[in-house]
Design brief:
By secondary structure, the chain is an alpha/beta fold. It has a domain at 437-547: GMP Synthetase, Chain A, domain 3 (2-Layer Sandwich). It is built from 15 helices and 26 strands. Strands 2-1-11-10-12-13-14-15-16 form a 9-stranded mixed β-sheet, with helices on both faces. A hairpin with a 5-residue loop joins strand 1 and strand 2 (37-41). Helix 1 crosses helix 8 (238-245). It is globular, with a radius of gyration of 24 Å. The N and C termini lie far apart (85 Å). The protein binds adenosine monophosphate.
């Protein structure tokens, strides 16, 4: 017997409709790319998204066409999120931090019809212009007064001129909820980027779930800043979840440094913000160096890579709660959340902070499996290591336009390539990416564990641990560090730092000091480049020793 409830589809347009009808006067505040602060309301967002939808129709786009965006977090990008997806097109957010060749590859692979670009990123399109194939229009997200003149792209359109003559009336179509709504490519450090195609249903379910108290816990009283870019996994769904609860949104634009975030948070009364650990370390460093207090911030959400214990402690000592989540482009992104259980209430604050460094437990909607090398589930003892597999309604079943099936053994599980331990409470801890683990004399060494320990040292700004080849042991760990200004860190400092915290065999053989560590397009340590750097440095050292 079928249930007798209405079959109303879960569409992104339902979020906008709800927001405008119930929270029409809630503000969206953006640091504009042209300079200054821009303010408007959900009501304005709705009207301008409808004008954009009319403009896209007039441009002749057909349902399912991809519309590229190269833009910071701001109100016009919000209009693209809603105007494009709600009218049945696919909002393809492009990561401007990728290499130009990768961006050209992505634009062609996605077969983008139109690209909407912030002023800052016009030079990227100029650089790849000869390589992009089917883009019929490029629209600059600005007004006539700020339009750039480009000799390479003479036909640039102006966004404000494009939408100005359009009507504010548009009936969002009642789409099938499984219709594609958004497209985001993985950063592709080892192979070509792969496209993850979100649906209306997956986006709505993910955004709804992310509002749960133990995840982001958004309420109508919150003032939310996604520092995580809208070109990276839909800014963790915040452009949708904020409208579901009706909270004020504060968009940082291009200014993601500590000083700019601090002044925006303080002037707009931001209560919760989401971003990667690097962003939070920069904010904390700035606030400490300038003896300031974060007066409105109550919680921060962190993910994308493991937050150092030191960062968690620094926030908690300011009474700011840390919400740590794990996810991937392929998981929309939220899959695991590091939440406190009732049995943890009496643990010391040190132990609670340490628990928060773990990636945590699956949220409702995400099932996990952890398989050992033999393909069988590992014991849930917090020690055995295995490969993390996930499934659920907001997990990718395959990649866009790909002949390669991503699911594990073709049985409906997505293989994350993250190596993890899992304990009896189902608390998952990432040990490493499969390819970043270091195997020394048959023992596995977690690069993440070494990095976490190193990062807590006061002289170290950022640390990476990678393998070097070793005739006797197969591989040995090497620590590569960027120091704090004027700090010193010797080989002996490294040995005493690790002694007693890890097994003797895990203590790195060498420490290499660099001016800056290379990162990939999403701000994560670029291990392939760091491994190359280590090979070159060690070869140089060996040559110098030979010359002596
Ligand atoms: P991306 O698709 O670029 O977001 O990268 C996803 C990968 O980032 C995951 O497979 C993890 O290896 C890593 N990652 C994401 N969140 C975390 C986290 N909280 N702690 C450690 N690693 C993480």
């Amino acid at each position: 017997m079928r249930g007798m409830m209405m079959n109303v589809p879960l569409l992104i347009s339902s979020i906008l409709k709800h927001a405008v009808e119930n929270h029409g006067d809630t503000e969206i505040v953006s640091r504009a790319t042209e300079g200054g602060i821009h303010r408007y309301t959900y009501f304005d967002l709705d009207q301008r998204s409808k004008k954009l939808a009319n403009a896209l129709q007039r441009m002749g786009l057909k349902s399912g066409d991809r519309v590229g965006t190269l833009a910071w977090n701001g109100y016009r990008h919000m209009e693209l999120y809603y105007g494009v997806s709600c009218s049945g097109f696919i909002c393809h957010t492009i990561n401007p931090r990728l290499f130009h060749d990768q961006i050209a590859y992505i634009v062609n692979h996605a077969d983008d019809s139109v690209i909407f670009v912030d002023l800052t990123f016009v030079p990227i399109l100029e650089a790849i212009a000869p390589k992009i194939e089917n883009v019929r229009a490029i629209v600059v997200l600005t007004d006539e007064a700020n339009m750039p003149r480009s000799a390479i792209l003479p036909n640039l359109l102006c966004y404000e001129d494009l939408i100005a003559p359009e009507s504010e009336a548009f009936d969002w179509p009642e789409l099938d909820e499984n219709t594609a709504s958004g497209l985001c490519y993985t950063s592709g450090t080892t192979s070509d980027p792969k496209g993850v195609l979100y649906s209306h249903r997956s986006s709505v379910l993910h955004a709804l779930t992310s509002c749960l108290p133990e995840i982001f816990g958004f309420t109508v009283c919150d003032v939310i800043t996604p520092v995580v870019p809208m070109f990276h996994v839909n800014a963790w769904g915040i452009p949708f979840s904020a409208l579901i609860v009706g909270a004020k949104l504060v968009m940082p634009g291009a200014n993601l440094d500590g000083a700019s975030l601090y002044s925006l948070f303080e002037s707009e009364g931001v209560t919760i913000a989401g971003g990667v650990p690097t962003v939070w370390m920069a904010l904390l460093d700035w606030v400490d160096a300038n003896a300031q207090s974060l007066s409105s911030l109550q919680r921060i959400a962190v993910g994308g890579s493991a937050p150092p214990l030191d960062m968690i402690n620094r926030f908690q000592s300011r009474n700011i709660l840390v919400r740590h989540a794990w996810g991937m482009t392929e998981t929309s992104p939220i899959g695991l959340v590091s939440a406190k259980l009732p049995k943890h209430q009496n643990l010391s604050s040190e132990k609670q902070a340490l628990n928060l460094t773990k990636q945590g437990r699956p949220i409702y909607g995400v099932e996990i499996r952890v398989d050992g090398a033999d393909g069988k589930p590992i014991p849930r003892d917090g020690k055995a290591m295995g490969n993390l597999l996930v499934r659920g309604p907001w997990i990718a079943s395959d990649y866009f336009n790909s002949r390669q099936n991503s699911t594990h053994e073709d049985n409906g599980w997505f293989d994350t390539n993250d190596v993890v331990t899992v304990d009896a409470d189902n608390i998952v801890q990432i040990v490493d990416r499969t390819k970043d683990l270091i195997k020394s004399g048959g023992e596995w060494i977690s690069s993440i564990e070494l990095e976490n320990i190193a990062q807590a040292h006061p002289s170290i700004k950022e640390a990476a641990a990678v393998a070097k080849l070793d005739q006797r042991w197969g591989e040995r760990p090497v620590l590569v560090v960027q120091l704090q200004p004027d700090a010193l860190f010797t080989h002996d400092d490294m040995v005493s730092l690790f002694s007693g915290k890890v097994g003797k065999w895990s203590i790195p053989d060498e420490v290499i000091i660099v001016d800056e560590l290379p990162h990939n397009a999403t701000g994560k340590l670029l291990k392939s480049a760091i491994r190359e750097l280590v090979t070159i440095r060690l070869a140089g050292k060996a040559d110098a020793a030979d010359d002596d």
